[in-house]
DNA sequence: GGATCGCGGTCACTTCCTGACCGCAATGAA
DNA sequence: TTCATTGCGGTCAGGAAGTGACCGCGATCC
């Protein structure tokens, strides 16, 4: 620990943990003379991390926002929270490639005890309020494994549950992870099938690195996202619905509720047309109900049936409960 | 850049950006001889960051999970995603003190251009599907400012919108940020009122550091969380409800839906009692409806009325839509 | 068996790091 | 205003590193 570079790192971590540090205090903490501390600060500045200094009786050093991002020195708990946060961020479909890279970095360097904690937290993850259990959320462990493997050009072996329920084992060279809609897809070269395939990540079970690396192949397509789109939409797209609903409310209000999951177009000043292609009908129905406005389902008929069903149930609940309340 | 410690940092970053690095390649990248690279790797190991090495023709170095967390070397995009993820994590009420610290660290060292991007992203945040618009989400900028100020013992000035709508300006010495339920509260010493106060963070507008630091005061309470609880519950708690509902489904199913927002107790093998104290009745009703089981509202009566209301509306929607479908 | 790679020892040379001085400038309190 | 505190940077000498060039060894894979 008497090293220079180690001390520089510790200084960086101290400056990240608290804003203002009086010089003598820092020097004492690092067990060097104030002169050496000044030199260390200079070193940090040369590395591109600007350190502000204030002379005077209440002076001290402070790490200022600069041109470059310094390495983040985080402790166990902070790393846990970061990992959990970015995982749920990914699971909701927001967040792109950089989020995946960040997660990969964190997971890679995480001590085993932390990974164990992370797995424990995973199981108690807050359920997405509107997703029914038919929409399986992405398994974070699988996602992390795939991301690591892709980055390191390592083959992966995983079990894949196809739409008809059969389960197969695959050996794949991962090429890219693509978020599309609310889902994540893996594009890769299937070594058994000897062809490029698209896999839905929520159908992948127990992925693990195969231990062998591979040389990168040239894919037969230019745009990966387009490849995924055609593959997903071309095949039996399994449970996807086309929904069109007229809602008696302004487009702003409705759009605010659906966010990016639906396309909202104004019809009149007080009604609008909502169209979307959700995985499940639960979510849209929940959102429609919570808007508090009248609506009419154009398609699919199942949604209308569901609405009637929910309506009947809620009406019963209202009646039961009012009766119960009157009995008090 | 010819420094030893800078090189060590760069080595760390390289090892985080890709798993396997052949030795000669790394040496070339760092512009040192392979011997020096070996010494650098040794240095990292001495610092507690285990580096695996594989001899042989396909060998190389890899950063292994170890006892300590190495500093995370992230690029701009990754830092953005991390910040966004942890902010929405905080906004949903999950995530504790460590999450706040992590956010503070990231925000503090973030270059200005990144902060600007972060602000832009904030405005386009996805709306929480079940929160009605009366439940204002936490303003991330405010939260970050308060967290920074608290950590650095800096006074903050902010506008506070009280429950009756009047707006006042406050100068406060922040003591602690406390998550309670789905809300965040600031406990601090109000310099104008000369007393300890609790502020709801979603009622704070445009907070900024006052530039002056303060010496820590001894608060007149031991348990901050308890202080907040009594203050919040004692005062006009503004829109809080006590909900008790009997659901005709197993406790597991119901508990999985409500997560940590409700206390679920089994009554019989096929029904359970759900109790919670939500800010709004929309969320609970949405969740109750989406379970797909019969339920009875014990309290409050408003929830029963709402259920009846929703039921009527959904029933109308179902009828309208079926009629429309039949006309095709 | 050979090529490739990582490991670690040694040696001489060079670089730097460190602590101890020094005077100077800025800041805030008495 | 004066004074103490704090940061800044220069210089110097001794010591501690870092560095590259060797070397032989062992592991791994083809």
| Distance from first to last alpha carbon of chain A | 71 Å
How much β-strand is present in the residues of chain A? 15-25%
Mean pLDDT of chain A: 79
Largest interface: A-B, 112 and 113 residues
User: What is the element string of chain A, with H for helices and E for strands?
Assistant: HHHEEHHHHEEEEEHEHEEHEH
Explain briefly what this protein structure is.
Two copies of one chain form a homodimer. Chain A has about 325 residues and is an alpha+beta fold.
What structural keywords apply?
five-stranded antiparallel sheet, DNA-binding, alpha+beta, 328 residues, 23% strand, disordered C terminus, homodimer, four-stranded antiparallel sheet, 11 helices, extended
Description:
Two copies of one chain form a homodimer. By secondary structure, chain A is of the alpha+beta class. In chain A, 44% of the residues lie in helices and 23% in strands. Chain A has helices spanning 4-17, 23-30, 34-46, 76-91, 97-109, 112-123, 140-152, 224-234, 251-258, 282-291, 301-327; strands spanning 51-54, 60-63, 154-161, 167-180, 183-190, 195-200, 204-213, 243-247, 263-268, 271-276, 295-299. In chain A, the strands form three sheets. A five-stranded antiparallel beta sheet of chain A has the order 6-5-4-3-7, with helices on both faces. In chain A, β9 (263-268) and β10 form a beta hairpin. Chain A is extended, with a radius of gyration of 27 Å. In chain A, 37% of the residues are buried. The model of chain A is unreliable at 123-136 and 323-328 (pLDDT under 50). At the A-B interface, α1, α4, α5, α6 and α7 of A face α1, α4, α5, α6 and α10 of B. Chain A binds a DNA duplex (30 and 30 nucleotides) through α3.
